[in-house]
Amino acid sequence: MPKPSRHPAFRPFVTVALLPFLGAGASLEAGLTPEQRATLPAAAGRTVDFARDIQPIFEASCVQCHGRGKAKGSFSLETRDDFLLGGDTGAPAVAGKSAESLVVAMVSGLDPDNLMPKKGKRLTPEQVSLVRAWIDQGMAWPDSITFFKHEPANLRARETPLPAATSFDNPVDQWIDRGFQARGQAWSAPVDDRTYARRVWFDAIGLPPPPEELETFVADRRPDKRAVLVARLLGDTQAYAEHWLTFWNDLLRNDYKGTGYIDGGRKQITGWLYRALARNQPYDQFVAELVDPGSEAEGFTRGILWRGAVNASMVPPMQASQNISQVFLGVNLKCASCHDSFINEYTLADAYGLASIYANGPLEIAECDKPTGQFASVKFLYSELGALKPDAAPGERKRQLAELLTGRGNGRLTRTVVNRLWQRLLGYGLVEPVDEMDKPAWSPELLDWLAEDLASHGYNLKHTLTRILTSRAYQLPSVDVGETEEHYVFRGPAVRRLTAEQFTDSLRLLTRTSYGKADTRFNRQAGLVRRGDALPLRPNWIWSAPDAATATQPGSVVFRRTFTLPSGPTEASIALAADDNYVLRVNGAVFGSSGRRASTMTDFYDLTGHLCHGENTIEITAENLGPDDSRSATVDPNASANPAGLIAYLRIRDGSTVMDVVSDAGWTCLPLKDGTARPVAVLGGVDLAPWRLGSHFLDVAAAPREPLPVMRAALVAADPLMVALGRPNREQVVTVRQAGATTLQALELTNGGTLAAVLGKGAASLVASAPASTPALITSLYRQALGRPPTAAETQLASSLVGAPARVEGVEDLLWALTMLPEFQLIR
User: What is the DSSP track for 312-332?
Assistant: First the structure.
């Protein structure tokens, strides 16, 4: 009979995990054949310390299945007694006889039919050597070390006092210096001004420094000029928003074309996201509006409605669960969405509990896509931070989730985002991988301090960016860092490749070409050039019934407003949104419609030339779909009936004369079911639930009517060059793009049609407007591409390529050469 376990919840114990696969009569000697034992890595030739050598191995490769309350195959290693406890077949290991141990046999991987771990990170030969030495040396295991289930790491907010006074002003450097001193590591000299400027320009706003501004910065003699530069770059609202849009598009699965956008199975959040970045929205509010969204931000939690039959783990509520936990908490729930996770401690109940917040009614749990007949209980991942009320209405549950996620006590939210920013700017996270925030940081004090510093400064992400970009640590010379380093030691920022967007934007600036004109859709989404709070009027949601914002019957209603203009306007536009669909007519002619999109997006139309002196009529036919219609734009999927509403702002100008018209009590409506015209019911303003369009609607209404030239790759759909350089399709959350070069990239950069077309067009344009001399053209191209003038040798070689006078083919060859240089493609 087995000995009693010291663990409070006794479980029958078998020698090692998966021993049943060896057969009921398995013994220690059955682990490896003599020939296999002869090939085992030799035991380490030094004294093994459990805490230093063995505990990390167990943490990385074993406890996911055999600790923290789990005992796969009835095997637990939560304590030493649990580990040593055997069944009828004996102990898993005998002190002094590691070669005969089934534990060593399995972790060595020499027997492919019986190896551990089955999933996850397998042991290296060096780690097997350590385990052998530990067994041979008596398997010492301090009583203080256990693998019981405990509170997740990096969870609670924690104030961390700064180290004792040092010579560094930036707190980031104070923590880095503490680590340097502990390792006897000296600080390297900061990089020169040109290197720093190129690095910080790309990291802050995603563009190379303009040559004239770079020279001005280099010549500046002020001691604080780098801090001044960071403040100026982050203060460039438009450039900042356009650059960081790429980062958040990857995280939030937002794009401009692709699966779901045509048939209504996916919804953009570009307008909301652009505005949030342009206004530097506090991060806690940013998160709250994404998890408890109005109609402009709901695309993130709505996910993608895949066509056809899909795995139970990929229905929209499960997507919301996975994406919220990954993006904001640094937790991978994809494995736990099918079964209890093999790679971390999260369970199927955890994933389904979070998904239930967004489910249309009770959510049945499916294990490996097989229904279990059990229904999930609504829950937050971390009961330590609070609980959700299971009987709350869906809208209230989302509000409660937003409060738990953004509450001051949730340190995981702030740690996750500052870790992402650190990884983005320095190439390697404080916690790696960045989506495994349950792991310890290589500098836990720095992580804690940055997280608390963010919260105490109003969740201002630009504040955290400033801390990092002005630190001495960020200004160190760059180093080569592998994508996964076993024992990472910070020595300086990692050498990084330009992102697809940074490369393409740099290419466009070098060749002086643009992406073409933006249509009014982008202008209305950005809503940045003019601020809506300066508009003279405030529109209201209207409908034919006074309770329509809560619930009303399906059907179509014709809304009409007739007004007289004293003169023909020089500028006119309309912004409108309808739940669910609309058709717009201007003076009797159909002007636009939402199609069958049913997503309550704010739309923008340029009406200049379509309004006239005298009487004008705007007519909008809005359709409210039923709650069971799959196209319904209802924000709350559990509502008993669909809400309905229409909101509009007509911006009309004749020079300086303002003649605006908004949706208000002055409109009439005609429900098509009863055919009786009557005054509209005014429901409420732009902040009215469930739509909560807020100031974004007014920003769109104030947007310019003229298409803007697009100079940033972040604002357009990916072309073949961007795809080859790693821009994802964003059907999944992407937190870190692939850093290594690929065959596709090599092919596209050497013979790609997209790159060739841009370089050819750019060369022709440059020759047409080239300086008087070839050397002047070459110098200007070098300064734009590399941030420096060419050397004498480079000038001589480039001149032979370009010719005198400059030839289009020669300039194109030089452009190819410059863009292929590591100096152009890397951030050092």
Answer: GGGSHHHHHHHHHHHHHH---
